[in-house]
Amino acid sequence: DAGGTGDVDTWFKQGETMERSRTRSFFRLTPRLLQLHQGQQPKEWSKTPIQGVSLDATGLIALADLTTIAKHTALNGTSSFLDLLVLCPGIHRQQYATELNGGELPPTAALTSGYVFRVENQATVFYLQKTGVPGHLVTLNVEELPKPKRRIPELRTMRRIMDLSFLLYLIPVPLTLTALVFVILIGDWWALAVLLILILARTLNTIVVRRRNVPGWKGVKEPGVKGDLLILLSQDRWVRLQGPVDALKAVTAGQWLRDMTFLESSLTAIATLLIYINAAVTTNASQTGKIIILALLLLSVGLLAMSNEWQESLCMHGCKVQVDGKPRKYARRLDLANELIEYTGRDDWAIRLGIINQRADGAMNTVKVLL
The pTM is what? Predict the structure, then answer.
């Protein structure tokens, strides 16, 4: 009948419409399937987001001779295992942290005993140079930190968990983890290899620094005795360091990092070679991977540099040194010497330090020979 014929025609028309729709969908999907089959990424996962731009020299950024990592090592007295995930240019320069003082070993006088010596701890001298102000006397206080009941190597020398400096230091850690996740998601295994090589080089340097950071000879223990030191730095910067004698010895006596053994020198050499190898490997990474590596290095070094600048204390061998009060300005160094002589009641330290001339026979505590 006519009604049945109409239903059949309608059914066939609907079938033809659905078939044409499937055909169009197939042809739209086929190019994407071919891309995936040929190892190509869809447009939204493109590994070359910026056409016509080459970033093959990205690996050279890690070779920059920046002292940011070395300064952080000096200010904290050692290297933490958290450092493994703080990737910055200058990883191969960490062992040169002992040269940050520029070779300066400032003369120092013990105001309580008149004894004169030189501060040979390079990290301490670097911190004194950082806090010193020309023509001013800066007073620093040193204290012994209580030993934690549970030893946590990563935080043992960082007691400022909530201050801005420490937070800036922590930010590069999740940045590195995020970069690792991104290069894995885009399937850029060369970029992943670059990041892992940087982490390995950082690990080797951290191990060497922690091995070298062993307290050497500090003299006889003097518990309960207070000390007072006057340190003369270059550029007319004067620092007064006060605190327990044992703590003063810990931060001033002897060298900071002992000389490297053959094994430690070999590990350092391997870490340096890894950084140079890394520069060659980076050229194989995709453009997206290079952008991730470049952004990570630049952000991390900027954050670590700000952390170093805003760090107000020095941690060294279980002691903490920090500024006590505001710097005091003096018109002449002689005015400073006369004030401290009157305060201590003796002038032998000033004569031995060379800031005043030898006095006549009637002067108090005068020594006849200028050392």
Answer: 0.79
Q: Is the pLDDT of residue 281 over 50?
A: yes
Helix pair 262-281, 189-212: axis angle to 10 deg: 160
Token pair, residue 339, equals 């004030």
As a whole number of angstroms, the distance between CA 309 and CA 61 comes to 22
- CB distance 76 to 319 below 8 Å: no
d(CA 114, CA 108): 10
The predicted pLDDT at position 10 comes to 58
Rounded distance, CA 146 to CA 239, Å?
A: 25
Helices (H), 47-188: 68-76, 122-131, 164-170, 172-185
Query: Using CA atoms, how far apart are residues 215 and 194, in angstroms rounded to an integer?
Result: 35
Which residue, 187, 185, 195, is CA-closest to 294? 195
Mean pLDDT estimate for the chain: 83
Paired residues of 228 in beta bridges:
242
For the chain, the C-alpha Rg in angstroms (whole number) is: 32
Q: What is the pLDDT of residue 199?
A: 96
CB of 331 closer than 8 Å to CB of 92:
no
| Residue 194, C-beta contacts closer than 8 angstroms, at least 6 positions apart | 59, 278, 281, 282, 285, 289, 293
Task: Determine the residue type at 81.
Answer: F
Neighbours of 285 (CB within 10 A): 26
pLDDT tens-place string over residues 102-160 = 999 999 999 999 999 999 999 999 999 999 999 999 999 999 888 765 544 444 444 44
**What number of CA atoms fall less than 13 Å from residue 317's CA on the CB side?**
23
Q: Check residue 89 and report its DSSP letter.
A: T
